[in-house]
Write a structure and sequence with these properties.
By secondary structure, the chain is mainly α. The chain contains ten helices and no strands. Helix 5 runs antiparallel to helix 10. The longest helix is centred in the N-terminal third of the chain and has 27 residues. It is elongated and about 60 Å long. The termini are far apart. The protein is 80% helix and 0% strand.
Length: 201
């Protein structure tokens, strides 16, 4: 391996190390409670090296959020798998049920649901979500619109309403004293919500 390739590999490894530690700190302490100095102390990376990869704390948080969004998208795809049998309504239900559990993950809850909208602004938060989890919801909702399950002109609005409902339910579950009971009630509520919303027009 030539020196240039080794440098590229070291740079990529440093970036991943920074992202991993920053993800943990942002999840544990929140954006406001996490400083660049704390990241440097935890990683042992030099200040110059950190700023080589990220322009500042906002850029670091942005990269962390995108990594979290990518992971959530992969977990949703894995949860749906082939169990939907190609039926978009079944896929939507499986995805919503999976999201209830995924959003209870402290990393997802703090970084994606709580801090991201305020730190990066709603537009950037939604832009990243559209590439991953929200984008998958919109694709499924669009399929349902084409099948005549509901008005196809309302795909974007319906997807936003559904995602907002799922996020609120997930936060309620995550903060509940009795997690098992909360998850059971949440799943029943989601079943009822989807049953009513997915009636053919």
């Amino acid at each position: 391996m030539n020196p240039s390739s080794r440098n590229v590999e070291r740079g990529a490894a440093t970036r991943e190390h920074l992202l991993g530690v920053a993800t943990r700190l942002f999840a544990e302490r929140g954006y406001e409670g996490t400083s660049i100095d704390a990241v440097l102390t935890e990683t042992g990376v030099s200040r110059g090296s950190l700023y080589h990869h990220f322009k500042g704390k906002d850029a670091l948080f942005d990269a962390v959020l995108e990594a979290v969004e990518l992971d959530v998208g992969r977990r949703l795809v894995a949860a749906v798998g082939t169990d939907s049998g190609g039926d978009p309504a079944t896929a939507l239900r499986l995805g919503c049920m999976a999201w209830i559990g995924i959003a209870g993950d402290p990393v997802v809850q703090r970084i994606l649901l709580i801090d991201a909208p305020g730190v990066l602004g709603w537009a950037r938060w939604r832009e990243l979500d559209e590439r991953h989890a929200f984008g998958k919801i919109k694709q499924t909702v669009a399929e349902l619109g084409r099948e005549g399950v509901f008005d196809a002109s309302m795909v974007d609005l319906f997807a936003h309403v559904l995602l907002a409902s799922m996020n609120e339910i997930a936060l309620l579950v995550a903060r509940a004293d009795n997690q098992r009971a909360a998850i059971r009630h949440a799943r029943a509520a989601v079943d009822e919500l989807l049953r009513r919303l997915l009636r053919p027009t």
